[in-house]
Amino acid sequence: MWCDILELATLSVIANDNGVEDKTFITREVFCNEKSVTTNEYYQSSQNGNEIKIIFEVKQIDYEKEQYIIYENETYKVVRTYKTNSEDIELHCALKEGLV
């Protein structure tokens, strides 16, 4: 059962009419399941500097290797992925401060 919605985001650099470059996200919504991070994975990721805060499960067909996720007004960076079966993929994410 897919009970949550997240935004998969790709960072894009767009230049305005004056030539000033601005970073912005191009997003699209997909259904997901929020999963808990295991204690072991949390501590191992903390030691590597990429503290995994949350795991999202989405359909593989929906995921196009986006590096950012926006969920409940927070921006996350995808640290690693894990295919759980032939249809689903887990996105292991760290909290990202600011836009980038």
Keywords:
Thrombin, subunit H, mainly beta, 1 helix, six-stranded antiparallel β-barrel, 100 residues
If you had to describe this structure to a student in words, what would you say it looks like?
This is Phage head closure protein. It is a single chain. The protein has a single domain (4-95), classed as Thrombin, subunit H (Beta Barrel). A hairpin with a 5-residue loop joins strand 1 (4-15) and strand 2 (21-35). The longest helix has 10 residues, at 39-48. The protein is mainly beta and 100 residues long. The chain has one helix at residues 39-48, and strands at residues 4-15, 21-35, 52-59, 68-71, 74-83, 88-95. The protein has one helix and six strands; from the N terminus they run ββαββββ. Helices cover 10% and strands 57% of the residues. It has a six-stranded antiparallel barrel.
Q: How is the topology of this model organized?
A:
Blueprint: E1 4-15, E2 21-35, H1 39-48, E3 52-59, E4 68-71, E5 74-83, E6 88-95
Antiparallel strand pairs: 1-2, 1-4, 2-3, 3-6, 4-5, 5-6
